[in-house]
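INTERNAL AUDIT FORM
Audit reference: QA-55
Scope: verify that the stored structure record matches its stored sequence.
Auditor: D.O.
Record contents follow.
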Amino acid sequence: MSWNFRVIKLNVMGEDLYKLAEVYYDDIGKPNAWSEPFLEGLSVEEIQEVLDRCLQGAAKPVIDVVEMTEYKLHEKRPE
């Protein structure tokens, strides 16, 4: 079985929703299952915009969560 990421379209209560999910294929290449979508939007273009922002974020330096948490613990709090 093979898989790839694909945009799938669902109709929920009369509204089309587009979701990015892992799609799985049978032995003849026909899609037969998908994973829980991890990104959704009202259009394919909206999903593409979010993915572009994700790529921009991935190109930036990593934020160390431990350092960020330590900073917040020592942050001066308003009285």
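Auditor finding: record pair retrieved intact. Strands lie at 2-12, 15-25, 31-34, 39-41.
Action required: none
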